[in-house]
Amino acid sequence: MKLAKILKIALNMVKANKLRSWLTIIGIIIGIASVVAIVTTGEYFQEQVTETLEELGGDVITIYPSTPFLVSSEEDEEYEEDTGEEDSTTSGDTEKDSENDTSASMLFESETEPELTVRDILTLRRIRAIEYINVNVDSGAELKFGGESTNIWVRGVDPNVWPEITKKKVGEGRMLAPGDRAVVILSNELAKDTFEREIRLNQMVLLNGRSYRVVGILAKDGGLLGSMGSFGASVYMPYQEVYSLYSDEEMPERERDVYGSIEIKVHKEADYDSALEEMKSKLRLSRKVTEDTQDFYVYSPKENIENVQKLINGLTAFLAFIAGISLLVGSTGIANTMFTSVLEKTKEIGIMKAIGAKNSDIMLIFLCNAAMIGLVGGIIGILLGTAAVQAILFLISIKMNAPFEFALSLKGTLIATLVSIIVGLIAGLVPAKNASELKPVDALRYE
Hints:
It is found in: Cell membrane. By secondary structure, this protein is an alpha+beta fold. Helices cover 55% and strands 15% of the residues.
């Protein structure tokens, strides 16, 4: 029997029992729509979270000064109390031991706050895996414009390096350039929304009473999570200029080469983990500290991004599995429909076999019938699931005052389509096999 004839008979079987077919299809629609909605939403939020983290420096390693932990000797003090004696000799020894214990307990406490200096930069430059090194000098300041003022966070950066490693993009104007002096770049939120008048390019603003020219305005953070507000500083300027925001009393000369943090970007072909370990070991050697007394902290966002992606993937897979249970319910509906069809078509099966239809032809007819039900349910489920996701994202975008972005998971759509067909075929396999094995004589006698 030709394939076209088989498909036509299978289609007629679906049309002959419209109500029963649609009730079966609804079960598939619910399952497929749930899976598509969950997978698409999960992929969308994973993309948004990853994009947000990368805008904060996804591949940039940051080094911060960090005060070592204070190690106490409570066990030694308890021991002294238990073994203390009244005689003067022992008392004198105890006082000496106490002094020694106190000095031991203060061993890991720094006399001064740890700092990042030019010496650390020179140490890092000897590491071949490093491509760029940027220094950050952070400070709070008062910004005045048009008779209004606000307190903002200023970040001083190296204009030679920062444009190469930052994920931020300029919406208007330009990035900082080598040789820049008394210039600033503003965040989009600060320039557009903070003051009654919008700050424009080449206008002058006052930072702690000093004049600075606006040479660039950053582009607005994109994506859904970008609308939650700007991250980090609102003003960027050459780091040497940040020192000028203070008087000589507030910023002594010795602190003019001290940095709040150091940002590092390694070469793409370099081994990221090995480079990270080399930075730590060489900085420890240069700063004369051990792993226990380490007075700096190395932050690698790459691990955080990977952990977030694993978490979202795991949660999406779990929810998709729960939603997929409804597909199991839908498959039992298809199986029930197919068994009923076999019983109704028993005499017709006998006639077809009597005029020369093969067992494989009968089996293909019922399998195609089941696959059609699954495919129709899958297509409608994909459309409904996608529409539901767009409605949810549209409402969220309105609530968060963010631009709406259409989300579609090609992987989820393809998987859902294949699953709907496979579910139909598996559910119809046993009924189709039973139909193909019917003997013509028994089928013709069936009432």
